[in-house]
User: Fold this.
Amino acid sequence: MSKTLTEFRAFAMRGNVVDLAVAVIIGTAFGKIVSSLVENVVTPLIGLLLGGVDLTQLSVSVRDAVIEYGVFLQSVVDFIIIAAAVFLAMKGINALKRRHANEPAPPAPPSREEELLTEIRDALRTK
Assistant:
């Protein structure tokens, strides 16, 4: 293997790079879920609350310009929902971390020296 290929392999297999790749993949999948939630659940509900109005269709004409403020409003709603979803996900992850942080660490297995000393102690007790 060439030195460059070896260096690239070492770089690509570093923990941070692999963690980042996993985060991007999970983030993309999570983004699709949240986008679907916004498009297919929340936006129709907001439309019902507003009397069947589709936010993206709201606009105002000023002379020859058409200002589509509904698209902006929909983007704001999308952002709020995505931010809330990320907040709740992080809150859940932090709760799990705290729960595991409060658990006592399992005792370390005894070293060979400790095992020998225990055997000697036990042998002396039986005499």
Summary: The helical segments are 3-12, 15-49, 69-101, 112-126.
